[in-house]
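User: Quick one: structure for sequence A, then sequence B.

Assistant: Sequence A:
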Amino acid sequence: MGFFAILLGNILFLTSVWHYSILRAGLAVTPGPLVVAVVSGPAGRAAERVGFRTVLLVGFGFFAGGLTWYATAIGLHPSYVTRWLPATLITGLGIGLTFPVLSAAAVSSLDIERFGVGSAVNQTARQVGGAIGVALLVVILGTPHSPAAALVNFRHLWAFAATLAVLSGLVTALLKGAGRQPHTSIVPAPGEEEK
């Protein structure tokens, strides 16, 4: 919910409070997704070595930290390099460590023949969460009548998303089993065809 809320919320902030054009706002948020693209692959490999829980906890920590940076450091006056960019990079690092690993963890304990169903359920849950997150974004932002009031509402949005990241980390910490579960292969091993 928090991810989808800030995905739209950050663009709305840049265009309505800092008065960026749509193109400039899109470019301003681009470093975050670039970090996600760079980090996702290594995050998956790290999860195979040290387990899902460890990587997810680190990821949720960065995700919450980046969102907290937004909530506490961003002001009414544009300050892209010193305030926005660091928050975007930290948040992108957190997303890169969590999203792909969450998808793998969601199906890791399933038998191979159930991967498709497990993945579909995971994606459905993600989409429902996204819809709820965007709906809550509308509620949190409301219709402020001044830039200062809008900033307060955006800070509430970032704090809300950071709180959800922390809660996700707490749920992750409570999960049993830190790594991939072995799966029974549906393809027989060499010499096992007759058995």
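Sequence B:
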Amino acid sequence: MNDWFAHHLLGLPELASLNGQAVDDLMVYVHWLMLALLVGWSLYFGYALWRFNAVRNPTADYEGSKSPLPKFSEIAVVVIEAVLLVGVAIPIWAKNVDRFPKPEESTVIQIMAQQFAWNARYPGADGKFGRQDMKLISSDNVFGVDPADPAGKDDVQVLNEIHVVVNKPVLIYLSSKDVIHSLKLVAMRLTQDAIPGLRIPCTFTPTKIGRYQIECAQLCGNGHAAMSGGFIVVQSQQDFDDWIKSKSASGAPASFE
């Protein structure tokens, strides 16, 4: 029922992540509440127009209705909203900020936002990220990778196209090179601000193979619209491994797209 309501009445976009179902459910619950309020208050408004019209009340009544129904209705609405907040919304938030998958069981990606693109970095065939130093950050070294560290020789860096594995947790470490950005993956129901100087973890588990748009949910400058030019590519483990191998070359500089 929730899925039908979400996609046929609310018109929610395609869902392609495991964690996103709880987000959709919350939106459905909120809209069910709004629908109930719309119908309930419309009926009450119609009743009030009928009950207190001039024909039925030729003499003004300065006390009005004495029914306790409005008060009880308002209390019920507050209780329902509290249940949605404490029982649904906060647990969803807590799960996504406190329970991160193990790196060894995930696709681990470093993402560095900048005006106006998304940089992504993967560990190479050795499974290790090369050492980083913020003093080394420059226009052609956005992650500040130390070129003297052999662990970083086969690391993979790409621009605006981020590859992940279907049905495998994705663990992202998000930061920004310049101003505040916000990584928004609509199909994955994920939004996380990218703050300069911070490395913020966030996670999702993709469930559908495909190509999904990346958006920036924070106005970040006059080229903000260009941030929607990035994509998340969800593929099989074999296809992902082949892609990583095609980008990673041991002993060679990290590759860029």
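The mean pLDDT is 87. Residues 20-51 form the longest helix (32 residues).

User: Thanks, that's what I needed.
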